[in-house]
Amino acid sequence: MFKKHFFFLVFLLFVPLTAVGEVLFPDPTGDSLNAAYSKTSRVELENQVEEGVPSAEYMMGMIYLSGDAAWGVQSDYKKAFSLLHRAWCDDVFDAGYALSTMYYKGLGVDKDLAKVRDFVLKSGENGYIKSQRTLGLAYKGDVLQSVFDKDIEKSIFWFEKAAVNGDQLSAANLSMIYGGDGVPRDEKKSFEWKKRAATAKYGNSQFVQFLKLAEFYEKGVGTDKDLVQAYKYYGLSGSAGVEGKQRVAKEMNQEQIDEAIRQSQEWQKENNVQVGGGFIRRAN
Predict the structure, then answer these.
(1) What is the C-alpha to C-alpha distance for residues 172 and 195, in angstroms, rounded to an integer?
(2) What is the pLDDT of residues 15-46, one digit of tens each?
């Protein structure tokens, strides 16, 4: 009996007794949250709120925060705060970002910069990507200047966390930083983060990132000059990449152009998109 109790005590020493929370919607674009709304209704969510379901508390809180005409819900900051705070207390880390915004803007609560800092840090530390990106921007000096002092190393730290978790904008910011915006220029790192931005899981500016990535390949910035990849990504950039595609084509043979087209069409097929109506200009 003594041995069993001794083992249990030793086990407790090495296992942190922290609450296990979760990030419900890691996608910082909001697409996954909107998809969740499309699969439920106001009545269903309100019933779940009464039952104390944390995900429903968060989702209904977000509805009251912005309002929703389709659901007949007007913006109500007091209700939003109550629901979001309940969700936070139930370890829904998504709620921390919304609460930090409310304290920063004074929506339904008095402005409190200390709480802004606390909520955005805690939600970021627990994996909420939008908070991680915001911390990167804040320490870079772009947002929340009254809350965080500028610190480029901390900015890089938080951008890296968000980028590794799939955030496109954070990866793009890292590419700019290593391009000489705040730290000594490191072309290799700038290229690597731009490439990650172009293939990021979460983001709405993929084709813009393709255009920038094409420029890296065309000029050989941080990587070997590769006109096949440059042509491919200029092509995937749509109309914005036409001029670049025509420019690099003058330095390519037909075999190289065919390979670039093949790779581009393969990407479009795999991702179920069609760029420029499926027509990619060949060299004359």
Answers:
(1) 9
(2) 333 345 899 999 999 999 999 999 999 999 99
